[in-house]
Each structure stands twice: as structure tokens, then as C-alpha cells.
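Researcher: I've been going back and forth with a colleague about how Pyruvate dehydrogenase E1 component beta subunit might be arranged in three dimensions. Neither of us has a model we trust, so I'd like an independent prediction. The organism is Saccharopolyspora spinosa, in case that matters for your notes. Sequence below.
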Amino acid sequence: MAAPALERPTATAGAQTVTIAKALNMGLRASLERDPKVLVMGEDVGKLGGVFRITDGLQKDFGEHRVLDTPLAESGIIGTAIGLAIRGYRPVCEIQFDGFIFPGFDQIVSQLAKLHFRSQGKLKMPVVVRVPFGGGIGAVEHHSESPESLFAHIGGLKVVSCSNPVDAYWMLQQAIECDDPVLFFEPKRRYYEKAELDPSTPPVPLFSSRVVRAGSAVTVAAYGPMVRTCLDAATAAAEDGLELEVIDLRTLSPLDLDPVFDSVRRTGRLVLVSEAPAEASVTSEIATRVQQECFYSLEAPVLRVTGFDTPYPPSKLEEGYLPDLDRVLDAVDRSLAY
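Model: Here is an independent structure prediction for Pyruvate dehydrogenase E1 component beta subunit. You can compare it with whatever you and your colleague have in mind.
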């Protein structure tokens, strides 16, 4: 069972207010300091510090031999990381934008995901692939994708997504320490949202979901950028006397659905929220599993609020494409109407 968590971490003597971007930088720094085998590599991660400045200052402090600027070649980045992992290193690859991951897709699914199995356990693949994902920043084509379901489908890969600075700090370090390859999806439009982080507080286990707001009327589950949207929807619903229970899924492969099952057995209703298209997605898998495990507890069908089954639209149209507070509340109302 995942450890209980508050909607907003409480400040303590050792806490500081940080953004998700800063927390990720701190997590990388802590891992680089802890283990000399940790390397950071990617396009513009060194001198520039990354397009979102996630790796800012790391090359200056740890040197070019540990924070490596690479050519614009995602397949080469992943392939090089695989070779480094075979030699005992723990590479952390940055994919500059979500849509840029596809040139490296073959290396990820054909090699990175399979080498541990192919070698009968002799080879470990402690590779982290960081992916800023999702929309909401007004970017051009290939800069606002949500490809997480593609990777959650592949055996041998772990897939996680942080939604707040505390998780960003701890989950990235935990992913780096994992001996399996981890796709680490970061909600780019939330990079500069702030919360209190106390590095002395023990983290929640990596592959676990958790309740971030307790409620009794409807269960609402999301991950990455949509967790904040769901929390805002819960705040709005509370003004009308409706208490939504919000669950941050955090891990997409393996899925940790016990907290979701427990919640649905109490509320009888579930709304799943994701920026990714609905068809053949993480949300469709969760809907199926909940129907199987909680059939006699459900008072309404599992409903989903997602992106549409189209290519991501131009920036002028993304406000209508992305799930928002009103769409979440509409799904809640439809669930309660059954």
C-alpha cells in the first residue's frame, strides 16, 4: 500500500520552496554526487543547461566527462547509453522534447527493453530516459506529444511520471538507482509550479500511486500534468459540497492500482484524466482493470477525460484539445447522474 500523502507538503525546518524544474536539477545533482557511475547526456544538456534549464550548472560542477553534450541524434543517444550501461554506468538521457523520442524508439523497444531478458539476467540496463511531455506551452508540432502509453505497452520498460516538486526530486533519484530502464515523463507545463521540499523526509516508493486528496463522492485518477487540474477541480467541487478523491497514479508501468481499487470500492465511481488520446491508452487499461476488480462496487461506468484521437493541434487550438477543469467536472456530473 502506498504511503498516505497530503495534497500539499507541509513546510518543515529543512524545507525550501522549489519548482519542479529546480527539484529535478537537485535530484540529478544528488545522484551525480552519490554515484560516480551516473552520467547525464543529451542535446544541449551541458553548456546550455538544457532548453528548460533542468541540467543547469551540472556540467560546470561535474565536468564534460559526466555531463555530455551529444549530437542531435536520439537513436545515437539511446544506443550509446545502452553501451555505457553494459560497462557498468548509469546513464540519464534527456530527450529534448517528447516528439523527438521517436527517432530513438527502435533502440528503446528493440534493445534497451530486451537486453536483460535476452541475456538471461546477465546484463542490467540501469538507463533513465527523461522526457518533457504534454502540451500547454504553445509549442509547434512535435513539441507537445503524450507518447507514454506506447512505452507502457513494452515489456522490460518501467514508465513513471512526476506531478510535483517533491516527487520530481525523489522519483528521479529512485529511477536512476533502478537496475531496469525507466522512461521518466516530466510535465513540462508544470515545470515552474512550486511546493515545499524537505530532502530529509523519506520518499514514497517509486512504483506506487497515492491518494493526494481524500474524498467520498467520486474517485478521480490522473498522472503528470493532469494531477494539478484534478486537484483544482476537486477544490471547485468542494465549494458545492462535493468531495472528490484524487489519486496521483505516478507509475504507469507497472501500474499500482490497489489505491484506485480501494477508493472505487468506497465511492462507486471513477473518472480517469489524461492528456493522451483515449484509444489504446493507459486510461483504457485502467478502466478495464477497475471493471474486472470492482464490478459489483461500481455505481456508474468508468468515464475518461482525455486528449482527442487526433494529431496534437496547433497552439491556437490546444486550449480546446487539453482536458481542463470544466471537462473534469462535467465527467463528475455525468458519473453522479447514473
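Researcher: What would you highlight for our discussion?
Model: I'd start with this: The CA atoms of residues 171 and 183 lie 11 Å apart. After that, consider the following. DSSP finds twelve helices and 14 strands in the chain.
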